[in-house]
C-alpha cells in the first residue's frame, strides 16, 4: 500500500473513532460512580441536533458544541432525577432516555433535514504535522480530536491520581461505606451522570457538526450503544477505551479499506455497514466469556439504586 | 417545610395500578404543553391527536390494527422482563419474522393452498425466535450482556432486510422500489370486518395474550420465572434453572415479535419493504412496562400506544407537525411511568423545616 493511502485510512479511522472515545469516557466516569446510563444513544442524538441547530443559526461550530454539551447534560439530568432521586430502575430508565432522545431529536430536527453546514477546517499542529505518513493523519485534525486525547489523560489523572476521583470510585464500589464516612453519594452520582451526559452531547455534536456536517434522523446509528459496549470491552479502563474506540473506528470505515485494497470484492454495501454491529457482539462475547474478569473490574454497585436511610 | 420520600412498610398494590394512569395523565398534560409551545392551540391539538383517530368505527378498527403488533411483541417481552431477561431487540426479531414469512410467501407465490398462511405464521415465529436465540446463546454460553447483543442485532436485521429489498427479493416490475412482489391472496390474512383493514392477526394476538396470562399467572414454569426476576438468590436455592429462564424469556419475545412481523407483511402491507418496521419493537417495551408486565394491562397499554401512533399521523396531516411527535409522547409516557412508580415503594411526607 502506498503511503498516501495509509495516511488517509489512519485519518479516517481516528475521525470515526473520536465520538466513541469521547462518549465512552463520559460513560466510564458515570459508571465508575455506580450509575449505568443506557440512554447514551438518546443523549448523543439530542447533542447532535442541538449542536447542528445552533451552529446553523449562529454560524459558530463552537457555540454548537456548547449547545450539544448542554443538551446532553439536560438529558442526563432527567435520567438523574429518575434513578437517583426517585430510585427508578436504571435499565428501564436508560431505555426510556434512549427512546425519548431519539424521538425528540427526530421531531425537533425535521426543519433541519435539508440544510448543510460549512465544513470546519482542521487545525494543523506545527512540526508534528510534517512527520511523514502519520503526521497529516494525526496532527492535522479537528480540534475535538485533540480534545478527546486530552480528555483521556484528564480522566486517567482524575480517577487514579486525584482525591475527588478516589471518592468517586469509592461511591461506585461501596456507596454505604462512602456515605457513612460523610460523602454525599447522591450528589457525587449526579455530578458523574451530568459529566457522562455532557460528553455524550459533545460526541453527538462531533457527528453532526464536524464528521458529516448534516442532520439526518437516526444518524447516531447505534454509536451510543457501541460506546456502552466499549466500556465493558475496556474493562472500565480509560486507555483501553481509546484503543477500543479506534479499533471500532477502523471497522466503521471498512468500506474505505475495501476500496483501497484494490481487490474486486463483490459484496453488498449492507454487509460492510453491519460490520461494527457484528464486531460489538464479538467483542462482548470475548470479554464476557470469563465472568470473573467482568466481576473483578465492574464497579460493584453498578446499576444498583442507593438511598441513605436517615 | 420539605417534601420527603419515606419508605413504605410494604409496596403499595394500589399505586402499582394507579401509577400507569398517573403517567397517562401527566403525558396528556405534557402533550398540551408541547402543543402550546409549538404555537398550536392546545385544545385543537388534543382533539386532533387523541380524539380524531377514534371518532368512527373505521378509526377504531385502525386502532386495533395498530395495537395488534404491539400486543404481540409486548406479551412475549413481558415473559422475559418478569424474569429480568432484558430482550430489547424485539424490533430486530420482528423484522426477521417478517423476512422469514415473506420468504415463504414469495416461494409459494403461485400456490393457492390454505396451508400457506399457517406456515407463514409458523415461519414468522421461528424467524423471530432464531434471531432471539443468538443473544440467548451468547448470554447463557458466554455471559454476554443480552441488552447490547439483542440491540446490535436490530441494526443488523434492518440492514439485512434492506439488502433483500434492494437486491435478491426486489420485484423486477416494481419500478426499482426497494420492495418485493405483492403476495398472492393465499398469503394474506383474512379480514375480520368488511371495509376495514383489521385482520385475523388481532385474533391471534388476543389468543397469545391469553396464553401469556395462563403461562405467567397459572403455570409452575411461569412461577419459576417470576421468582427468578424478583429474587434471584431464592430461585437459585430452589434449584430453578437460570439458563432455562433466559432461554424461555428470550425465545418467547422473539417468537411473538416474529409473528407480529409476519402479521404486518401479510396484513396491511401485503409485501416486504425496506421499512417493514415502524418502531413497534421499541414501543412494545413501553407497552410491556405500562401494562405492568401483565397481559390484561398489555392489552390496554397497546391501545394507548396505538392511539399515540395514529395521533402522530393525524398531527402530521392536520397540524403540519412531524409524525415523530408520537415518539416524543411515547418516551414521555415511559418517563412519567418510571417516575410515578416511586410511589409504589415510597410515600411523600411533609417534613417540618429544622
Element layout with pairings:
The complex is a heterodimer of chains A (310) and B (354).
Chain A: H1 3-32, H2 40-58, H3 61-85, H4 90-109, E1 123-124, H5 134-138, E2 140-141, H6 143-161, H7 163-173, H8 175-180, H9 185-211, H10 223-233, H11 238-252, H12 254-261, H13 269-273, H14 275-288, H15 291-297
Antiparallel strand pairs in A: 1-2
Helix pairs in contact in A: 1-6, 1-9, 1-10, 1-11, 2-3, 2-4, 2-9, 2-10, 3-4, 3-9, 6-7, 10-11, 10-14
Chain B: E1 2-7, H1 13-37, H2 42-51, H3 57-82, H4 90-107, H5 116-142, H6 146-166, H7 201-218, H8 220-230, H9 232-237, H10 242-269, H11 280-290, H12 295-318, H13 325-340, H14 342-345, E2 346-351
Antiparallel strand pairs in B: 1-2
Structure characterization notes:
The complex is a heterodimer of chains A (310) and B (354). With 310 residues, chain A is mostly helical. Helices cover 72% and strands 1% of the residues of chain A. A two-stranded antiparallel sheet of chain A has the order 1-2. Chain A is globular. The relative contact order of chain A is 0.21. Chain B has 354 residues and is mainly alpha-helical. Chain B has a single domain (69-318), classed as ABC transporter involved in vitamin B12 uptake, BtuC. Chain B is built from 14 helices and two strands, in the order E-H-H-H-H-H-H-H-H-H-H-H-H-H-H-E. Chain B has helices at residues 13-37, 42-51, 57-82, 90-107, 116-142, 146-166, 201-218, 220-230, 232-237, 242-269, 280-290, 295-318, 325-340, 342-345, and strands at 2-7, 346-351. Chains A and B meet through helix 3, helix 4, helix 10, helix 13 and helix 14 of A and helix 5, helix 6, helix 11 and helix 13 of B.
